[in-house]
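Postdoc handover notes: sequence design on the structure in folder B. Input tokens:
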């Protein structure tokens, strides 16, 4: 199966989350492939949390 090169999250948001969760240096040194699956899951959870907050703020 061909790999898609588009993302739902901006690179800026991904880097911000990586910094917040302490994996930014790993991303810089090894790329996203060097980030553990647990930390990737944490990144996704944090992105969902941000999206939910933004959605709540936009409906007020």
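Designed sequence:
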């Amino acid at each position: 199966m061909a790999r898609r090169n588009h993302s739902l999250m901006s690179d800026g948001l991904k880097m911000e989350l990586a910094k917040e969760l302490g994996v930014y240096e790993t991303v810089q040194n090894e790329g996203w492939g060097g980030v553990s699956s647990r930390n990737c899951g944490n990144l996704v959870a944090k992105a969902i949390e941000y999206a939910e907050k933004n959605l709540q703020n936009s409906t007020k």
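Context for whoever picks this up: The mean pLDDT is 89. Don't rerun without checking with the PI first.
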